[in-house]
Structures are given as structure tokens and as C-alpha cells.
Design goal:
With 116 residues, the chain is α+β, with helices and mostly antiparallel strands. It is built from four helices and five strands; from the N terminus they run H-E-E-E-H-H-H-E-E. It binds adenosine monophosphate.
């Protein structure tokens, strides 16, 4: 697995720093966001480091499927399809990206506000 020694999410994958994990398979983990913006706020990441969804699509498009397979499994098993949920992936500082390891926010819980 390719990782980045300075990447905080790679350190959560390796166990070097703790993460509140809710899902773990061969390729993907999900854990609770440290600053939740909704009642349920998770981050889904691939275990191989890329910086954003464009790099992932260019270099390893299969990883996008692997992440969405994980999201599908988690949301199916946790009744989130009925409750409703939102997926967001920020690309670049102007969009609010602060961690440069490709990740998908999953927001759910009480009725979500608008996307701004
Ligand atoms: P973004 O701003 O889209 O790059 O999302 C990065 C997210 O990572 C933010 O919502 C942060 O709250 C979250 N975050 C940063 N460090 C940690 C950490 N150690 N554990 C869990 N979530 C984190």
C-alpha cells in the first residue's frame, strides 16, 4: 500500500494515531469526523493514499468503486437509505479541503440544511 508519512489519514489507517472507526475492510475504512457537522458525520477513505478524487480517478479509478461499495454496505446495514444521507468530497483549499488524502464526508441524522 502506498502511504504518505506526513498524512494524518494515513496515520489513522496505520494506527499511529487513533480514529473512531465504524467500518473497515480490505481497501477502505470509515471513521467519525473529529468536528462533526451533522448528528452523524463520517469520513470514508481508501487505504491507498491519493490527494483528491481527480487523482484517484486518473490513477486508480477502481478505488472509487471500492469506496462506494463500502458506503453502500454501511448505509444499507445502518438504515441510512431510509433516513437519508449526503456525500461530499471537497477538492482544493477554495472548496474547503483541509486534509489532502481523498475522502468522502457522509452526513446524516436530523434533517440536513442546504449545502451552504
Ligand atoms: P476537508 O476539510 O473536506 O478536507 O475534511 C477534512 C475533515 O477531516 C474535517 O471535517 C476535519 O474535522 C476532519 N479531521 C481532521 N483530523 C481528523 C482526525 N484526526 N480524526 C477525525 N477527523 C479529522
Amino acid at each position: 500500500m502506498h502511504d504518505d508519512k506526513n498524512c494524518i489519514f494515513c496515520k489513522i489507517i496505520s494506527g499511529e494515531i487513533p480514529g473512531s472507526k465504524v467500518y473497515d475492510d480490505k481497501n477502505v475504512i470509515a471513521f467519525r469526523d473529529i468536528q462533526p457537522a451533522a448528528e452523524l458525520h463520517l469520513l470514508f477513505i481508501h487505504k491507498e493514499h491519493t490527494v483528491n478524487i481527480n487523482e484517484m480517478m486518473m490513477k486508480h479509478p477502481k478505488q472509487l468503486i471500492e469506496i462506494f461499495e463500502a458506503i453502500n454496505q454501511f448505509t444499507s446495514e445502518n438504515d441510512l437509505i431510509n433516513k437519508g444521507y449526503r456525500i461530499i468530497s471537497n477538492v482544493g483549499k477554495n472548496a474547503g479541503q483541509s486534509v489532502f488524502h481523498t475522502h468522502f464526508h457522509l452526513l446524516s441524522g436530523k434533517r440536513l440544511g442546504g449545502i451552504n
